[in-house]
Amino acid sequence: MPLLPLCPRPPQRPAEGSARQRSGGRTARTAARAGALAAVAATLLAAGTPARAQEDAPSPGPWFVEVGRARGLPDGFHNRNLFCDLDGDRWPDAVLDNRWVLWNRPAPGGGRRFVLASPALGLVPEGAPRPDLLLFADLDDDGDRDAFVGYAGDPGNPKWVDHGRRSHVALLDDGRYRPLASPELAQVETLVAGAFVDVDRDGRLDLVRGSHYVSGGLDYEAYPLRLDRGLGDGRFRDATAAAGLALRREPGALDSRRPVYGVSVCDWNNDGWPDLLVCAYGRQRNLLFANRGDGTFVDVGVATGFAGDADRSGVYPPATKEFFRRRFGQARPDEPPFRANGNTFDAPAADFDNDGDLDVFLGEITHAWAGPSSDRSQLLVNQGPPDFRFVRREVTPRVHRVPNWNQGDLYAGWLDADNDGWLDLLLASGEYPDDQRLRLYRQDPPGTFREVTALAGLDWEMCTQLSLADYDRDGDVDVLVGTSNNRLPPERRQGRVLRTALFENRVGQRNHWLNVRLEGLGAARGGANRDALGARVVVVAGGLRQLREVVGARGHAGHNDALEAAFGLGRCARVDRLEVHWPGPTKRVSVFRDVEADRFLLVREGAPRFEVLGPF
Q: Does pLDDT of 33 surpass 90?
């Protein structure tokens, strides 16, 4: 049973009015852990240890400061945004709107500034339409970040105009992206989600892709989920049917196709094999494809509670039925059980409670008119062995100011904002006019959340895509997020300047931290994929064991954070033990002891020592 860390802060009863949302079905394991933590906290308090570490002292200013323009980010509508180190200099670069690369460079007089890359980079040629999906990873085992450039088509829509561009791979060689003919990836479908994953741990990255409706929602038919096995040179071959992922065309069954709006990857059951989290739209069931380790998958979404919450009534509110009666002459009928789930856009996985397994937050779009059977955004707490089932908790409650409310929770992310050793939850909402904004929920151990958006200084409405990274290399995680005018009435659009914000973290430096980057040996040398996707990094400090899993894109439209593992250490100036569990065929484990905090480390697979990259 875990002990309370002596370095990170001990737990404290949340303040009155905080969002303390516990599950009524808490397991004995969770209850025992909470009791043990409370008992040790009482002992520490009796011994004179402060109830809260210094990070809760009155702050001289907000936790985050918006510096986007000051750091060179241009104004404009940027719907897709991400951090990724594309030039290999260890500094996260920015990609705005899936087309503009901005290098992270030293600024005159100190600090950092983003500088627009030359069109010669070739990622998206001048005049080409914006890609709908952009994913980065090393696909040819040469140590740099290649790209999947995804284009959606909508041939079922009579108004769709074919621009002629097709999905393809672009290989980065000698500082330029060169398109690779990719007929196996060029299907004309309503592509909206994808992720790289090494499904068989052979060191070659594979690709999973998801699309939505065939006929724009006029019926329930959807395009297939696709799995493409990587050949190690940027080419792929279809493996959907062989992997057991070929779903039936007819809608409504557990094994039917459904509109996919997000794809995430994580080792949900700690067996060492990456599993697929498939986020469904149209209130259809989510899918959790468990990796059997033999190249095939089996859906366990219903058995684990990932598919949807317990309300399968499909009942519409009286007001919705009456609206349909007046408008169409008959009340809207209630939905069948397969249409009584969520509209899931994001599914970030993290070990938020530091118990050694991965939990998942589901970001949902929902509306008052849809009724209670339409799932709200919820935290799915992994109950661990033997079944690794999820218990659902609502940790982001909202007070709605209008009766016909909406919640557009498109993106979410986990970060330890204050580096206290416990992950916090960042929620980016948009698409609707009623109070859709960036929200931060600070974790109060063991497992309660309190909204601190105002304290954090995160004043940002109508969010577009979110990305997290320590862009300025000062030891804490910063936030990149755009904004939109979508569905805003004309009077609210007036005077709004669309741009991308960069919220620079100013609170994390008050605690210790560690940032770990990984480099796999690659398939040619019998090791893990070069980006170490699927690797697990474990840090033990002061009795607290923290886990991070390295993932690429996830959720809706290639939502992506920097490929590094960031840890908050509270007051611990040293790490007792650092472990890296590599995702290659040999299942190597690297172990380092007595590691100094406040450093950026590079761990190479098989190397006896790590490399210290910074402080920078």
A: no
pLDDT band at 226 (very low <50, low <70, confident <90, very high): very high
Q: Give the residue from 479, 510, 541 where a domain finishes.
A: 510
Residue 42: Cβ within 10 Å count: 12
Q: Which two tokens stand for residue 434?
A: 């009623």
Q: Is the peptide bond before 446 cis (omega within 30 degrees of 0)?
A: yes
What are the distances in angstroms from CA 524 to CA 560, 584, 605? 27, 12, 13
Report the half-sphere exposure of 559 (CA within 13 A, side-chain side): 30
Q: Provide the domain limits for residue 226.
A: 64-510
Mean of pLDDT over the chain:
91
Q: 226-230 and 349-350 as β-strands: parallel, antiparallel, unpaired?
A: unpaired
Whether residue 294 is found in the same domain as residue 389: yes
470 and 557 in a single domain? The answer is: no
Confidence of residue 17 (pLDDT cuts 50, 70, 90): very low
In a domain, 33, yes or no: no
Look at 349-358, 440-449, 554-563, 598-607 and tell me which has the smallest mean pLDDT: 440-449
- Interatomic CA distance for residues 32 and 588, integer angstroms: 33
Type of residue found at 505: N
When divided into structural domains, the chain yields a total of: 2
**544: amino acid identity, one letter:** L
Confidence grade of residue 440 (pLDDT, cut at 50, 70, 90): very high
pLDDT of residue 24 exceeding 50, the answer is no
State the Cα–Cα distance between residues 281 and 397, nearest whole angstrom: 21
The one-letter code for the residue type at 256 is S
Helix, strand or coil, per DSSP, at residue 537: strand
CA–CA gap between residue 597 and residue 612 (Å, rounded): 11
Q: Is residue 17 part of a domain?
A: no
The answer to the question of residue 42 being in a domain is no
**59 confidence band (pLDDT: 50, 70, 90):** low
CATH of the domain at 559: 2.60.40
188 & 105 share domain: yes
pLDDT at 30 over 70: no
CATH number at residue 256: 2.130.10.10
The helix (H) or strand (E) run that includes residue 599 is strand 599-604
pLDDT of 135-155, one tens digit each? 999 999 999 999 999 999 999
- Domain co-membership, 520 together with 500: no
Question: 533, 139 in Cβ contact below 8 A?
Answer: no
Q: Tell me how crowded residue 316 is: count the other CB atoms within 10 A of its CB.
A: 22
The residue from 510, 535, 569 where one domain ends is: 510
